[in-house]
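FORM 7B: Structural annotation worksheet

SECTION A. Query
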Amino acid sequence: MLRIDADIQAHRREFARAVANNHYERAEGGRILLPEQKAFLHGAIISPINGRDEQIDPNIIPTEGLNYMLDVGVHDATKVSAWYVALFNTNTTPQDTLTGANFAATQGEYTGYSETTRVAYVEAAASAGATSNTASRAEFTIVTPTTVYGAALLSLDTKAGVTGKCLACSKFSAGRAVILDDLLQILYSLSLSSA
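SECTION B. Predicted structure
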Protein backbone atom coordinates (compact mmCIF):
# COMPACT_ATOMS: atom_id res chain seq x y z
CA MET A 1 0.00 0.00 0.00
CA LEU A 2 1.05 3.56 -0.61
CA ARG A 3 1.68 5.94 2.25
CA ILE A 4 -0.67 8.77 1.30
CA ASP A 5 1.39 11.64 2.69
CA ALA A 6 4.76 10.60 1.26
CA ASP A 7 3.61 8.99 -1.96
CA ILE A 8 1.23 11.75 -3.06
CA GLN A 9 3.98 14.28 -2.52
CA ALA A 10 6.54 12.13 -4.35
CA HIS A 11 4.23 11.47 -7.31
CA ARG A 12 2.06 14.58 -7.22
CA ARG A 13 3.02 15.78 -10.68
CA GLU A 14 2.32 12.35 -12.18
CA PHE A 15 -1.11 12.08 -10.47
CA ALA A 16 -2.07 15.63 -11.50
CA ARG A 17 -0.95 15.07 -15.11
CA ALA A 18 -2.87 11.77 -15.31
CA VAL A 19 -6.14 13.31 -14.11
CA ALA A 20 -5.71 16.51 -16.16
CA ASN A 21 -5.18 14.40 -19.29
CA ASN A 22 -8.04 12.00 -18.45
CA HIS A 23 -5.58 9.12 -18.01
CA TYR A 24 -7.56 7.40 -15.30
CA GLU A 25 -10.22 4.74 -15.35
CA ARG A 26 -13.28 3.96 -13.30
CA ALA A 27 -12.73 0.44 -12.02
CA GLU A 28 -14.98 -2.17 -10.43
CA GLY A 29 -16.41 -1.29 -7.01
CA GLY A 30 -16.17 2.49 -7.52
CA ARG A 31 -12.36 2.51 -7.50
CA ILE A 32 -10.30 4.99 -9.53
CA LEU A 33 -7.31 3.47 -11.36
CA LEU A 34 -4.30 5.55 -12.38
CA PRO A 35 -2.80 2.88 -14.68
CA GLU A 36 0.56 4.50 -15.41
CA GLN A 37 1.15 5.16 -11.70
CA LYS A 38 -0.22 1.73 -10.74
CA ALA A 39 -2.40 3.22 -7.99
CA PHE A 40 -6.04 2.81 -6.90
CA LEU A 41 -8.09 5.37 -4.99
CA HIS A 42 -11.11 3.80 -3.35
CA GLY A 43 -13.32 3.65 -0.29
CA ALA A 44 -16.06 1.81 1.54
CA ILE A 45 -18.93 2.58 3.85
CA ILE A 46 -20.28 0.51 6.75
CA SER A 47 -23.83 1.27 7.90
CA PRO A 48 -25.14 -0.60 10.97
CA ILE A 49 -28.62 0.16 12.35
CA ASN A 50 -28.89 0.15 16.15
CA GLY A 51 -25.44 -1.47 16.30
CA ARG A 52 -26.56 -4.51 14.28
CA ASP A 53 -27.04 -5.64 10.72
CA GLU A 54 -23.80 -4.15 9.37
CA GLN A 55 -23.64 -3.69 5.63
CA ILE A 56 -20.45 -2.84 3.71
CA ASP A 57 -20.63 -1.05 0.36
CA PRO A 58 -18.11 0.56 -2.02
CA ASN A 59 -18.29 4.21 -3.01
CA ILE A 60 -17.49 6.41 -5.97
CA ILE A 61 -15.29 9.45 -5.95
CA PRO A 62 -16.91 11.89 -8.39
CA THR A 63 -14.84 14.16 -10.59
CA GLU A 64 -15.32 17.01 -8.10
CA GLY A 65 -13.78 14.84 -5.35
CA LEU A 66 -10.84 13.80 -7.52
CA ASN A 67 -10.15 17.40 -8.50
CA TYR A 68 -10.34 18.50 -4.87
CA MET A 69 -7.82 15.86 -3.71
CA LEU A 70 -5.38 16.79 -6.44
CA ASP A 71 -5.83 20.53 -5.96
CA VAL A 72 -5.15 20.31 -2.23
CA GLY A 73 -2.57 17.51 -2.22
CA VAL A 74 -0.70 18.60 -5.31
CA HIS A 75 -1.63 22.12 -6.39
CA ASP A 76 -1.60 23.62 -2.86
CA ALA A 77 -5.22 24.82 -2.95
CA THR A 78 -7.08 25.68 0.25
CA LYS A 79 -8.28 22.57 2.04
CA VAL A 80 -11.77 22.03 3.39
CA SER A 81 -11.66 22.38 7.17
CA ALA A 82 -14.42 19.84 7.90
CA TRP A 83 -16.43 17.17 6.07
CA TYR A 84 -19.98 16.05 6.82
CA VAL A 85 -21.98 12.89 6.16
CA ALA A 86 -25.28 13.31 4.34
CA LEU A 87 -27.88 10.61 3.61
CA PHE A 88 -30.12 10.11 0.61
CA ASN A 89 -33.39 8.23 0.20
CA THR A 90 -33.92 7.88 -3.53
CA ASN A 91 -32.74 4.72 -5.25
CA THR A 92 -30.35 6.72 -7.45
CA THR A 93 -26.87 5.56 -8.47
CA PRO A 94 -24.37 8.42 -7.98
CA GLN A 95 -22.59 9.57 -11.14
CA ASP A 96 -19.19 11.15 -11.86
CA THR A 97 -20.98 14.50 -12.27
CA LEU A 98 -22.19 14.53 -8.66
CA THR A 99 -21.22 17.72 -6.77
CA GLY A 100 -21.90 19.31 -3.43
CA ALA A 101 -24.15 21.80 -5.21
CA ASN A 102 -26.36 19.18 -6.90
CA PHE A 103 -26.26 16.40 -4.26
CA ALA A 104 -29.54 17.28 -2.48
CA ALA A 105 -31.54 17.38 -5.71
CA THR A 106 -29.76 14.60 -7.60
CA GLN A 107 -29.68 12.01 -4.81
CA GLY A 108 -32.79 13.10 -2.90
CA GLU A 109 -31.17 14.11 0.38
CA TYR A 110 -32.87 12.63 3.44
CA THR A 111 -33.13 15.09 6.33
CA GLY A 112 -35.58 13.27 8.64
CA TYR A 113 -33.17 12.80 11.54
CA SER A 114 -32.99 14.71 14.82
CA GLU A 115 -29.48 16.14 14.39
CA THR A 116 -29.80 19.79 13.32
CA THR A 117 -27.14 19.60 10.60
CA ARG A 118 -25.42 16.99 8.49
CA VAL A 119 -23.26 14.94 10.85
CA ALA A 120 -19.54 15.76 11.13
CA TYR A 121 -17.07 13.30 9.64
CA VAL A 122 -14.38 12.98 12.31
CA GLU A 123 -11.56 11.12 10.60
CA ALA A 124 -8.28 9.82 11.97
CA ALA A 125 -4.92 10.79 10.50
CA ALA A 126 -4.02 8.70 7.46
CA SER A 127 -2.10 5.52 8.23
CA ALA A 128 -1.06 2.69 5.88
CA GLY A 129 -2.73 4.52 3.00
CA ALA A 130 -6.17 4.91 4.60
CA THR A 131 -8.27 7.17 6.77
CA SER A 132 -11.69 6.59 8.37
CA ASN A 133 -14.04 7.71 11.13
CA THR A 134 -13.95 4.32 12.89
CA ALA A 135 -13.37 5.91 16.31
CA SER A 136 -16.20 8.43 15.85
CA ARG A 137 -18.90 7.10 13.55
CA ALA A 138 -21.44 9.56 12.20
CA GLU A 139 -24.74 8.86 13.98
CA PHE A 140 -28.23 9.73 12.76
CA THR A 141 -31.27 9.46 15.08
CA ILE A 142 -34.26 8.77 12.84
CA VAL A 143 -37.46 10.79 13.28
CA THR A 144 -39.10 10.16 9.90
CA PRO A 145 -39.24 6.51 8.77
CA THR A 146 -37.84 5.89 5.29
CA THR A 147 -35.50 3.70 3.30
CA VAL A 148 -32.00 5.17 3.14
CA TYR A 149 -30.19 4.28 -0.08
CA GLY A 150 -26.78 5.78 0.57
CA ALA A 151 -24.51 8.44 2.02
CA ALA A 152 -21.96 11.00 0.90
CA LEU A 153 -19.12 13.11 2.26
CA LEU A 154 -19.82 16.80 1.69
CA SER A 155 -18.06 20.01 2.72
CA LEU A 156 -21.22 21.84 3.85
CA ASP A 157 -23.05 21.02 7.10
CA THR A 158 -26.42 22.53 6.11
CA LYS A 159 -29.12 19.92 5.50
CA ALA A 160 -30.19 20.02 1.81
CA GLY A 161 -27.53 22.70 1.16
CA VAL A 162 -26.72 23.61 -2.42
CA THR A 163 -23.07 24.67 -2.18
CA GLY A 164 -19.81 23.02 -1.17
CA LYS A 165 -18.00 19.97 -2.52
CA CYS A 166 -18.76 16.25 -2.74
CA LEU A 167 -15.72 14.13 -1.87
CA ALA A 168 -17.31 10.68 -2.14
CA CYS A 169 -20.71 8.98 -2.36
CA SER A 170 -21.92 5.44 -1.76
CA LYS A 171 -25.15 3.80 -2.86
CA PHE A 172 -26.00 0.88 -0.61
CA SER A 173 -26.32 -2.51 -2.30
CA ALA A 174 -29.65 -2.81 -0.47
CA GLY A 175 -31.73 0.03 0.97
CA ARG A 176 -31.62 0.45 4.76
CA ALA A 177 -35.16 0.63 6.15
CA VAL A 178 -35.21 2.86 9.25
CA ILE A 179 -38.02 3.67 11.67
CA LEU A 180 -38.61 6.20 14.45
CA ASP A 181 -35.76 6.29 16.99
CA ASP A 182 -33.46 3.98 15.00
CA LEU A 183 -29.80 4.92 15.19
CA LEU A 184 -28.11 4.68 11.79
CA GLN A 185 -24.33 4.83 12.00
CA ILE A 186 -22.06 5.60 9.06
CA LEU A 187 -18.42 4.54 9.07
CA TYR A 188 -16.63 5.92 6.00
CA SER A 189 -13.18 4.70 4.94
CA LEU A 190 -11.05 6.14 2.11
CA SER A 191 -7.80 4.61 0.93
CA LEU A 192 -5.10 4.82 -1.71
CA SER A 193 -3.34 1.60 -2.68
CA SER A 194 -0.94 0.26 -5.28
CA ALA A 195 -2.57 -1.32 -8.33
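SECTION C. Observations
The mean pLDDT is 84. Helices lie at 4-20, 63-73, 103-108.

SECTION D. Sign-off
Analyst initials: ____
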